[in-house]
Design a protein that fits this description.
Elements: H1 9-26, E1 37-43, E2 49-55, H2 62-67, H3 83-93, E3 98-102, E4 108-114
Antiparallel strand pairs: 1-2, 2-4, 3-4
Helix pairs in contact: 1-3
Length: about 120
C-alpha cells in the first residue's frame, strides 16, 4: 500500500484521466494484440509518490518530446494542445512534477509525482 498524498482528489483524477485518454489514443493505430496500457504507482527515490501511465503507442520523436508541455502544441489532428499544459499546472500546484520518458520496448510513459501527506495540514 502506498502512503497517502497531499492532493485535491478531483484535480488529480482529471490529470490521470487525461493521461490515460492520451495513452489510449496513442495506441489507436497499433494492432489490438500489441496494445498495452499500464498504470503504476510507487514511492520514488526522492520519497515522493509517483504515478506512471505506460502505453505501447508509436512513441514520440525527440522534437515532440521537447515541446510536449507547451501550451497549444499537439500531435493530434483534432487536438487543442492544452491538456498536458493544464495537467502540468495542476501537478505543479500540488508541488509535484509531470514528466515524459520513452518506454523501453516502444511507447511512452507519462507520469507525475505528488508529495506525501505526512507533515502537512
Amino acid at each position: 500500500k502506498l502512503p497517502t498524498v497531499f492532493a485535491d482528489r478531483v484535480m488529480v483524477e482529471q490529470v490521470l484521466l487525461n493521461l490515460v485518454k492520451n495513452a489510449i489514443e496513442a495506441m489507436r493505430e497499433v494492432a489490438a494484440a500489441k496494445r498495452e496500457l499500464r498504470i503504476e504507482g510507487r514511492v520514488n527515490l526522492d520519497g515522493e509518490i509517483e504515478v506512471r501511465v505506460c502505453d505501447r503507442g508509436s512513441g514520440l520523436s525527440a522534437e515532440e518530446s521537447e515541446q510536449l508541455f507547451s501550451p497549444f502544441f499537439t500531435t493530434k489532428t483534432d487536438g487543442l494542445g492544452i491538456g498536458l499544459a493544464i495537467c502540468r499546472s495542476i501537478i505543479e500546484y500540488h508541488e509535484g512534477r509531470l514528466f515524459f520518458e520513452p518506454r523501453e520496448g516502444g511507447g511512452s510513459v507519462f507520469g507525475f509525482t505528488l508529495p506525501r501527506s505526512e507533515g502537512r495540514i
